[in-house]
């Protein structure tokens, strides 16, 4: 027999916990079912959010004062990188589908340039777009 157990039941700490739970649970349940409790929880949550937002704003201004990115800047950049990654994947799938599509025998085949350079009379590259744009729906 280990220390702290009775021959016919759970350990003493468990017995003490169960006894306290039996006494506290009915009072706690009646408390949490009141309208005042719900209002109190909502007010505390709003206060926490206000404090968090205020601290986040102060820390962001402090980081910007020393010319460093704040967490919001990093989050925005991560979102942009994610959008670019999704766009590259979408374009890769589209390119692979085009390459696999059978071509008619009389259609001219384009030979890819070795270095990927455009011909002098060809279209100019488009400037980089700002912000994430969604592809058109097909």
Describe the structure.
The model has no long low-confidence stretch (mean pLDDT 83). The protein is mainly α. Among the domains are: 50 residues; 34 residues. The N and C termini lie far apart (72 Å). Helices cover 59% and strands 0% of the residues. The chain has three helices and no strands.
Strand percentage: under 5%
> What does the average pLDDT come to?
83
From the spread of the alpha carbons, the general shape counts as elongated
Structure annotation, total helices: 3
Low-confidence stretches: none
Q: End-to-end span in angstroms? A: 72 Å
Element string (H = helix, E = strand): HHH
Number of strands: 0
What does the largest sheet look like?
Answer: none
User: Roughly how many Å is the radius of gyration?
Assistant: 32 Å
Q: What helical percentage do the residues reach?
A: 55-70%
- Secondary-structure-derived class: mainly alpha
Notable traits:
single chain; 138 residues; mainly alpha; 3 helices; elongated
Task: Briefly characterize the structure.
The chain has helices at residues 12-32, 35-65, 71-100. The chain has 138 residues and is mainly alpha-helical.
Write the topology of this structure.
Elements lengths: L11 H21 L2 H31 L5 H30 L38
